[in-house]
């Protein structure tokens, strides 16, 4: 019963955040099960011992990641919204989950503070890249590419309509092509379209982090 209440409270909090800070949340409702499944399947969890989730939100993706992960793996859930993170941690009392309250732009610092050394095997991003301020978006991707192991995987979703039009409350109308953007940071991509999601989405599974100096010159 307590878990259900926490889930409902988190969903309502998420919805309110969509009104209060659209550019950060980029949605009024959590991802559909179709999108969640595509994200989890892309993360190659059968071999991952260290996984990072960027933007745990209401824990919809977090729960599925934990269910698919190895028993000896750890999931570092990074969320900037403290109340949402607390609700997820209460609802998912799994010893493999390490809840991190902070910005995804500081992954190296956060992971070190959580006791993790070295690179990570997989990063699943649930952040709304199309609406993030460009400087913050670049800082997050640079941070992710730095901590990802050479053979690791980075998974990111985006909404298909962003290729044509996206609206920011601070920057107005623009376009954002997720694949081209991620190409600055990763040398390989695999794309999956998720039509049943509302709105329809794409999931990009990326490998081969590009060295930072090359990325900045792109």
From TrEMBL:
Methyltransferase is among the record's keywords: yes
UniProt-listed Enzyme Commission number(s): 2.1.1.44
Domain of life: Bacteria
A Pfam family of this chain: Methyltransf_25
Taxonomic path: Bacteria, Pseudomonadati, Myxococcota, Polyangia, Nannocystales
Protein name according to UniProt: L-histidine N(Alpha)-methyltransferase
Keywords assigned by UniProt, alphabetized: Methyltransferase, Transferase
The species this protein was found in: Nannocystis punicea
InterPro entries registered for this protein in UniProt: Methyltransf_25, rRNA_Ade_Mease_Trfase_CS, SAM-dependent_MTases_sf
Top class in the EC scheme: transferase
GO molecular function, one term: L-histidine N(alpha)-methyltransferase activity
Gene3D superfamilies according to UniProt: Vaccinia Virus protein VP39 (3.40.50.150)
Domain Methyltransferase: from-to ranges: 51-152
GO term, biological process aspect, one: methylation
């Amino acid at each position: 019963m307590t878990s259900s209440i926490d889930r409902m409270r988190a969903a309502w909090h998420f919805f309110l955040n969509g009104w209060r800070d659209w550019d950060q949340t980029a949605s009024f409702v959590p991802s559909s099960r179709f999108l969640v499944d595509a994200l989890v399947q892309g993360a190659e969890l059968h071999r991952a011992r260290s996984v990072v989730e960027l933007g745990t939100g209401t824990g919809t993706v977090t729960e599925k990641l934990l269910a698919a992960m190895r028993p000896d793996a750890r999931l570092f859930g990074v969320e900037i919204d403290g109340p949402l993170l607390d609700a997820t941690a209460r609802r998912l009392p799994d010893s493999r989950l390490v809840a991190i309250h902070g910005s995804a732009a500081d992954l190296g610092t956060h992971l070190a503070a959580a006791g993790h050394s070295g690179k990570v095997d997989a990063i699943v991003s649930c952040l709304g890249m199309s609406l993030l301020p460009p400087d913050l978006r670049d800082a997050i991707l640079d941070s992710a590419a730095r901590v990802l192991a050479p053979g690791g995987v980075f998974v990111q979703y985006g909404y298909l309509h962003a290729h044509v039009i996206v609206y920011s409350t601070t920057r107005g109308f623009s376009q954002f092509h997720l694949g081209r953007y991620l190409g600055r940071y990763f040398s390989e991509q695999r794309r999956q379209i998720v039509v049943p999601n509302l709105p329809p989405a794409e999931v990009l599974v990326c490998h081969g982090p590009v060295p930072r100096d090359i990325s900045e010159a792109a």
